[in-house]
Each structure stands twice: as structure tokens, then as C-alpha cells.
Specification:
Helices cover about 45% and strands about 20% of the residues. The protein is an alpha+beta fold. The strands form two sheets. Strands 3-4-5-6-7 form a five-stranded antiparallel sheet. It has a two-stranded antiparallel sheet with strand order 1-2. α5 crosses α8.
């Protein structure tokens, strides 16, 4: 009987020590790195849920938008957009001076144009921190356009995260490997403020979301992942994504 009590006491003591260690570790990490492990765990679970593109992407573009975009631009210019022998679209950025009048395009036409520019100028890749990801442009939206040209800008891209696999095989990254999805949808939202200089602008971070994670959760998650993968904090990542796309719109 005494032996059983002693064993029970040892087990109870171990449980208490483990609990204290876990709680202490939780607060140490939270205070030292600003990472709430419980919130991050819940956000990673949501991040790994399947994304329904039909709900996320409400203004998708098509090949028809590419064709109409080319016709609209070339009706005001001479040779800014051409095609090679295989029918591939070529954007001749060296002929930007051909734009001598305003050209109105729909959001979908702009997205079709940006998609070709990203393919041509970036090879459908983007660098985030030390990683290079394959990129797929999904949507572009402009809203609340002011008389001076300032506007709200939204772009949704899809990243292939397979380039993270070598890192995720190493400890401690392997601890979250099962919670990193194969693809990451990033919805970047910024304020675009025009400057007096042509083709120049300033960006102010608005908000960014990842997959099915909400705004606040995405902010916490990006900042937590930045501590691990050095991808940039929430606002920096948001501005980087939008800036890369906007720069390719103007070459």
C-alpha cells in the first residue's frame, strides 16, 4: 500500500512539474517573442483547412479578359502588346512612352495584364525572405478610386509552399510541418497613394489574410511565422505582395 502511495506521489509530482514547465514555457515564449502558442496552434489548424476558391475569389479573370485587354490597349498604342510566333503575349515595356491618352480597363483586364507581366518579368516566382515560391495571380480589385488617383487595392495570389519542405524536415520546424498547407492564398489589401512623379506611388498597409484565417488571426500568425521563417512582419509582407504586383503593372 505504501509503495502504491509512493508511486502515485511520484507520478503526481511529475505531472505537476510538467504542467508548470508547459505553463512557464508558454509565458516565456509569449513575453520573449510575442507568440501566443495557443492562438498560433488554432490559427495553423484553420490555415490548413481546404480553401474554397469560389468563395475567396469573387472577381476571377479569364482568357476573354486577356484578349479584350490586348485589343483595348493596342487601340490606343502601336505595338505595346504583341505576340510571338507561338501566340504568347509579349508586353513591350520599353514602349511605355506610347501611352499618350488614358486607357480604361476593368479589374479583370488589369488582372489578365498583370498575370502576363508577372510571367514575363518574374517567371511566376516571388521571393519572400530566404524562400522563392511559385506564384499564381488569382484576382485584382480596385475600389474607392479618388479624383486624384488614390485607391484601395486588393490582390489575391496563390503560393506553392513546396520550397519550404527542406526547412520543415529540420527540428524545430518539423513540429509544425503537418500544419503548413501545400498552397497559401494571400489576400493583400493596401492604400495606393499617387505621387506627382509619373508611374510612382506610395503604399500604406491596410490588411492581409491567409487562406481561411480572419484578419486578426492572420496578423498574429504572420508575425509568429516571421519569428520562425523570417518572412517579414505583417505590414511589411502585405506591402511587399502588393508592391510586387503593382510594379509589374507599370514595368
Amino acid at each position: 500500500m505504501k509503495l502504491i502511495r509512493r508511486l502515485f506521489g511520484i507520478i503526481f509530482s511529475l505531472v505537476v512539474v510538467c504542467a508548470i514547465t508547459l505553463v512557464a514555457g508558454y509565458f516565456i515564449i509569449k513575453n520573449a517573442y510575442g507568440i501566443d502558442l495557443l492562438n498560433s496552434y488554432n490559427q495553423l489548424k484553420v490555415l490548413n483547412e481546404e480553401v474554397d476558391e469560389t468563395k475567396l475569389i469573387t472577381n476571377t479573370y479569364s482568357n476573354d479578359d486577356l484578349i479584350s485587354m490586348k485589343e483595348t490597349i493596342n487601340s490606343k498604342t502601336n505595338g505595346f502588346i504583341s505576340t510571338d510566333d507561338n501566340g504568347k503575349v509579349i508586353i513591350n515595356f520599353d514602349k511605355l512612352n506610347l501611352f499618350n491618352s488614358n486607357i480604361e480597363l476593368t479589374d479583370r483586364q488589369v488582372a489578365a495584364y498583370a498575370n502576363e507581366a508577372i510571367r514575363q518579368e518574374m517567371d511566376n516566382k516571388i521571393e519572400v525572405g530566404d524562400y522563392t515560391f511559385n506564384l499564381e495571380l488569382k484576382q485584382i480589385d480596385f475600389s474607392d478610386i479618388k479624383d486624384n488617383g488614390d485607391t484601395l487595392f486588393n490582390v489575391i495570389i496563390k503560393l506553392d509552399l513546396s520550397s519550404l519542405e527542406p526547412t520543415l524536415k529540420k527540428f524545430p520546424y518539423s513540429l509544425i510541418k503537418n500544419y503548413i498547407p501545400n498552397y497559401l492564398y494571400i489576400s493583400s489589401n493596401v492604400n495606393v497613394n499617387k505621387t506627382e512623379e509619373p508611374f510612382k506611388f506610395e503604399l500604406v498597409s491596410n490588411y492581409l489574410t491567409l487562406n481561411n484565417v480572419d484578419k486578426e488571426g492572420s496578423k498574429e500568425l504572420v508575425n509568429a511565422l516571421d519569428k520562425i521563417f523570417k518572412i517579414g512582419n505583417y505590414d511589411n509582407l502585405n506591402i511587399k505582395i502588393s508592391n510586387e504586383v503593382l510594379l509589374n503593372l507599370i514595368g
